[in-house]
Amino acid sequence: MIRYYDHTDLTRRNSFGIRATAHRLAEFTAEEELREIFAELRRSGSSWRALGGGNNIIFRDDFPGTLIRCAARGIELLSQDETCARVRADAGVEWDDLVDWCCRRGLWGVENLSLIPGTVGAAPVQNIGAYGAEAGEVIESVRFLSADTGEAAVLRGEECRFGYRDSIFKHELAGAGFITSVVFRLALAPRPRLRYGAMQQEVERLGEATLHNIRRAVVSIRRAKLPDPAVTGNAGSFFKNPVVPLSAAERIAERYPDMPRYAAPEPGTVKLAAGWLIDRAGLRGASFGRVGVHSRQALVLVNLGGATGRDVLECAEQVRTRVRETFGVDIEPEVNIF
Ligand code: EPU
Q: What CATH class is the domain 3-70?
């Protein structure tokens, strides 16, 4: 059944806790219903956007159109052989519920992505990633329903053009339709990935590199660094880690030999840590009105209480300017601005 909510308060529907309303929120469970919602939107000419868990969104103002949300929460094992299992999850499944489901069944591939807030449907859009793993690596296909035609298409992983916090859903297919479900391909043989930061150390503290311990390690590292959105409004990393020419990185490293840098896919470029840049620009723990830079991870902006979308964007602009002035590097928001 389609559920419509008119003039909905969005404060609890975005993890930053921004006070805003939507003209309308439409919730569906079956694809048939989504088709009907799109048909109605075509008739009325009203604007729309997809809403997942609201974890990566800043509402600049009240949203004048329709937000669409998937309420289907099924997870099913499609097939399994000696090496791999294929698992289908509806867009409305909480991402961490899927990770938990897979870890309990001994399926490897998403454990490093434990506790990332958000829904399965949002995961392919920005190719969520953490601790040396990205969702795109285990996505076999994505089911996508077109807003114009109401037809569903299945995109294979390669067709999704996954990149660092990037995919076709942010480009050619942005605003063109809605992801209704995702199929994942997970491994049965252990393949621990512990190279990132404190992972190895944390897992060793817990014992062997089992799925259970890796999940626990990720959860504890995240809890130590990242603010809990249920307590302090935030949208996770606010900026993307910038990819810069090697020469620019070397220029900064002359002054800061300890600067973290990572390999980037394009030759002659490196990825820098935006959190480190913000921190070294002297902004960790700084506040700008009702929005602050988190004191344990400078990449995260936090709601100090009652922030509006405009307050957040103002703070982000100040941070961006300071990083540009200090290092000559431009950092771009990772969050979606509605
Ligand atoms: N750093 C500082 N000061 C800070 C923050 C970071 O010096 O205030 C340094 C750290 O010491 C480290 C480096 O910067 O040397 C990188 O920091 P961290 O390992 O915390 O990761 P990140 O690059 O800041 C990315 C993702 C996170 C993900 C972590 C772990 C992006 C935009 N963010 O952050 O994803 O959890 O790696 O894999 O790529 C998210 O997207 O919402 C998110 C939390």
A: alpha beta
